[in-house]
Design a protein that fits this description.
disordered N terminus, single chain, 31% helix, 13 helices, TIM Barrel, alpha/beta, nine-stranded parallel sheet
């Protein structure tokens, strides 16, 4: 018999073994075959000289960074992108050896030490940051040139040095000791829009920045510009590498890009029925009685709630799948539980599996469905599921 401590270790681990999966009230399934399929589909869009960076920041958009990283590398990605130093360290500790780019800004002494130790590759956003890196590595007696990636702001107005200063920025970094330029890159702000005006302007800015560097006679080994939407929109944006996040996980950044590639959602969210009961007409359901039973109904309580990542604003708006049927959620979504009207499944049993996101007998509910209902984006939905839901990697 497993102890409570052993059970807790299982259910909070990166992957969930068979015992934890079947004993849980709720969990997230990660379809590794779909993940591999998406990477292969993306590779088919790219020329042989263009590398694929899979963005696995935010725990691989909630899918489990270590499992995803290993799978995408096996399937054709050659680089990984993370947002923070700890995210990179997590992958290294798990034995991931592929090059890892830290997309966020880093500049403290502790971060620089960790980057050098764990063989991570930082983004340099400004000349000041470049000087901090060089001076810190000098103080460390670092005897190897650290690969660094220079970030330009071509119109995103977020991280990066203004593209007009690309030449002097690259020249500075090239002259600094202990640094080696690994790439020059920028990020698109509106690539998911059907109107490509801003995207094309950014593209021109990036091209002009590249020319500045060429005039100086400096060779930059890698140029990258396209995010998921840019990758799907225009091959001219591919350069030497593309950085793909959302499409890796089976979703399109915009409706008009669906025709470009065949993607499969990787994540499914499931939970179990914990109680079934009869409710009389006129009875209020859940906090605030925001739903009143219009007639006698069969009610099922399901063990998942907003503490697990189910948006409370979906109360009385969402559906789930049971036995391939769409079932309405009723009443206020609570911290740990939701309620369903299962009147059309009179023989439903406690312990039966409910699909909140995913496919059941041909019916499908996706993160896009939730995002559209909430007026948000699928990125936010995928990243919202908490880690008390074990991730179950399915081969």
């Amino acid at each position: 018999m497993l102890s409570g401590e052993q059970i807790q270790s299982i259910v909070t681990s990166q992957q969930c073994d068979t015992y934890a999966w079947y004993s849980q009230r709720a969990w997230v399934e990660i379809d590794l075959a779909a993940l591999s399929h998406n990477v292969r589909q993306l590779r088919q869009l790219l020329s042989d000289k263009t590398q694929l960076m899979a963005v696995v920041k935010a725990d691989a958009y909630g899918h489990g960074a270590v499992t995803v990283a290993k799978t995408v590398i096996e399937s054709g990605a050659s680089w990984l992108g993370v947002a923070t130093v700890p995210e990179g360290i997590q992958l290294r500790e798990a034995g991931v050896t592929a090059p890892i780019l830290i997309l966020g800004a880093t500049q403290t002494r502790e971060q620089i030490h960790a980057i050098a130790h764990w063989k991570l590759q930082p983004t340099l956003c400004s000349p000041k940051q470049a000087l901090v890196f060089s001076n810190t590595l000098e103080a460390m007696n670092f005897d190897v040139a650290l690969p660094v990636h220079i970030k330009l702001d071509t119109g995103m107005s977020r991280l990066g040095t203004d593209w007009r200063q690309a030449g002097e920025f690259v020249q500075l970094v090239e002259r600094l000791p202990h640094l080696r330029i690994a790439s020059l890159y920028s990020h698109l702000a509106t690539a998911d829009s059907p109107d490509q005006t801003v995207m094309n302007l950014q593209h021109r800015h990036f091209e002009e920045a590249i020319q500045q560097v060429k005039i100086l006679g400096i060779e930059v080994p890698c140029l990258h510009f396209a995010n998921t939407a840019g990758t799907l929109t225009n091959p001219a944006l591919h350069y030497d590498m593309v950085r793909v996040g959302l499409a890796v996980y089976g979703y399109y950044p915009a409706e008009h890009l669906r025709h470009r590639i065949n993607l499969k959602p990787v994540m499914q969210v499931k939970a179990r029925v914990t109680q079934v009961k009869n409710i009389a007409a006129g009875t209020g359901i859940s906090y605030g009685h925001r739903y009143i039973a219009p007639n006698n109904i069969r009610l099922a309580v399901v063990g998942i709630g907003y503490a697990d990542g189910i948006p409370r604003h979906l109360s009385n708006k969402m559906q789930v799948l049971i036995r391939g049927k769409r079932i309405p959620q009723i009443g206020t979504i609570t911290m740990d539980q939701i309620m369903l009207d299962v009147s059309n499944i009179p023989d439903i049993q406690e312990g039966e599996v409910v699909t909140l996101l995913g496919t059941d007998q041909g019916e499908q509910i996706t993160a896009d469905d939730w995002a559209n209902e909430l007026g948000t984006i699928p990125w936010e939905i995928l990243c919202s599921f908490k880690h008390r839901l074990p991730r179950v990697a399915l081969e």
